[in-house]
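Reagents: none. Just compute today. Cytochrome c oxidase assembly protein.
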Amino acid sequence: MDVRHRCPRVTAVLVLVCCSLYTFAAGRLRGRGDSWPRRRDAVFWLAGATLVCSVAVPWNAYLPPFAGHMARHLGAGMAAPLLVVLARPVTLALRAVPVAVRRTLVSVTRSRLVAVLAFPPVAAVIDVGGLWLLYRARLPHGVHESPWLYVHLFAAGTLFTFSVLALDPLRHRAGLPLRAGTLLAAAATHAVLAKSLYVAGPPGTAYTAADLHLASQVMYYGGDVVEIGLALVMAHQWYRAQGRALTRGTGRERRQPGPPHPVIHTCIPRKAHLGNLGRTAVPPRDGR
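Predicted 3D structure written out:
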């Protein structure tokens, strides 16, 4: 059987295994009394369903060839990575696995290689730069329909989303301004690429004009939806950070001692005091 036909089945099996492991780890965490929101379980299963639908659904039966490819690109390379990162699988693994495995994971997440790859500008170049290479370079025939292409799209999209949102622990977490600026630059570059595909398709391809127009619109507007979702998550992070800073500032103000109370000295005026010297009070006589 061709690899292209085996890809949906293999993807479905791998996704089912990963989702089952995630659910088992979350249940183990709750079983020992730790909290783990159930909505993250649902988000992870939704990510798996999105990835399977992106690969397994015959989009070419409903859309033109390049537009169908772009729908798979949008699901596997943008929507599914966002949902995966929102579920925080690395944090769950660090909390649920045994101590020996946890030490290995911590050493991996704190390694220099992961720090370089998870640096937002580097991750953006790998993700968006790979798209420019895919759609603007002359590649061998059949690359746009290769199953390994969607593996790359999912991995690069997950790396970019992981680095920009920084929800899971990292050795060096970039600041919010750098992450927001990287997201803005990547979104603009992605939009320019989508507009360029509206005019001309990838070199060496012969897609129709209607197919190119529809594919570029799917890439442009679908990418905007996912990027707005990323921006909303970052805005929520900023809001929570500002709230924590305000709470810490209020707590410090409450702990600081107030100014000392003024001491009021009561004294007799000097003139009145001297005028009363030598005078003896005469008690009143009886009957008066």
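The mean pLDDT is 86.
Action item: order primers for follow-up constructs.
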